[in-house]
Amino acid sequence: MSHRPSSGLAAVSTALLAMSRRLEVRDVLKTIVASARELLDAEYAALGVPDDHGGFAQFVVDGVSDEQWKAIGPLPRQHGILAAMLHDEKPQRLADVREDPRFGGWPSAHPEMSDFLGVPVRDGDETIATLFLANKRCPGPPSARGAGCGFSEEDEELLSILAQHAAIALTNARLYERSRELTIAEERSRLAHELHDSVSQKLFSLRLTAQAAAALVDRDPVRAKDELQQVAELAAEAADELRAAVVELRPAALDEDGLVNTLRTHLQVLDRAHTARVTFDSCGIRALPAAQEEALLRVAQEALHNALRHSGGDRVDVTLARRGQGAVLSVTDNGKGFEPRTVRRAGRHLGLVSMRDRANGVGGSLDVTSAPGAGTTIEMEVPGG
Length: 385
Fold this sequence. Notes:
Elements: H1 8-20, H2 25-40, E1 42-50, E2 56-62, H3 66-72, H4 80-87, E3 92-94, E4 116-123, E5 126-136, H5 153-216, H6 221-249, H7 254-273, E6 277-283, H8 290-310, E7 315-323, E8 326-333, H9 340-346, H10 352-361, E9 365-370, E10 376-382
Parallel strand pairs: 6-7
Antiparallel strand pairs: 1-2, 1-5, 3-4, 4-5, 7-8, 8-10, 9-10
């Protein structure tokens, strides 16, 4: 690559690292397209993920303004050069795409493109996307385009390498999103079981107590009054259980409210719903990668669940503080505590395994400090972005 600057290898490394650091599918697609366009110095870049109906489920562009993209209209169909890249393993490198017999034109608002380079993004034998560039930027006046300018064989080789890594990054992102969906489904299932067990038990007690009050109302009004008071208390507890469960089932508004506000709102509801005092303090928190914020929130919810339902304490303190470029979450209760090694041997993890998995999944760590009679502290640290 003699025509490339000496930092070409560093540029390739930067592009590959950028792709591997993204976890959300949409972020991965955007990073792939932007990296390809910058790496090969093209005016336009795009990536399309095909659907099963002759169109594209997702289509990401770089180099086209939002106004231009809206004016272009609906997503393209699988035809012409795009269809060739979906059904042929070979890259497509053209001096002028408009002169190719497969070219079928484009909408009036579409930018003019000439030289073209496209490669399929393949996972094994399956083409999972198409990646292409147009209008190579070349030194000299625009009139030089098409006269030895355009994409070279070396460009084609480089884009093919990038596409191979793009396939890995995209597959990993899809697996991550699927894993997260399964985790959310598991949490909802757990909450459903807890809701059924706790609320059903309280409603059953409420029914028996109400029947006892009805039987006593004539012969022992004083005892009947006591029983009715217990009915009111049981009904309030059941309502609190329902309210807390609904809050946990509702998707966290991290995107809109941020981690600190989402945690604060969640803890305020738990503080009202339980007899134990729940406090929250935060200091110096900066925005974190979305995956890390979600992991912190879920670990906080699991740790709070353990503290409020199993510790027997009357206070839970939650802190979230900045540490370096990242953050550290601490959930401390003054309950009965436990011996962590004994709990592991007995197979009762109290959600510790899932919390550690969440921390490790975002490059963080989880520490548990507890002893019988000394309460419990769960601390999670994430590295930031």
